[in-house]
Design brief:
Blueprint: H1 7-19, H2 26-47
Helix pairs in contact: 1-2
């Protein structure tokens, strides 16, 4: 991955920060964009995995009731 994020990612982060009223200086804006690009590359790698139609996603984590025996 390049040292500086693509201009489109910087624009997205800048617009998102403006929309959320988050003050980001240029250095922090670039760091957020680098992390977003890293996440985008991880997602692309996962999406590239060949999965058969019978492969099901993992069940959503549900913690055991506490104390044991209670259902609430």
């Amino acid at each position: 991955m390049p040292d500086s994020p693509p201009a489109a990612t910087l624009d997205f982060v800048r617009a998102s920060a403006r929309f959320l009223n988050l003050p980001l200086d240029d250095d922090r804006l670039a760091r957020v964009a680098v992390h977003l690009e890293r996440t985008r590359h991880m997602v692309a790698a996962l999406e590239a995995l060949p999965l058969d139609v019978d492969v099901e996603p993992a069940e959503v984590f549900k913690p055991a009731p506490f104390p044991p025996g209670s259902d609430s």
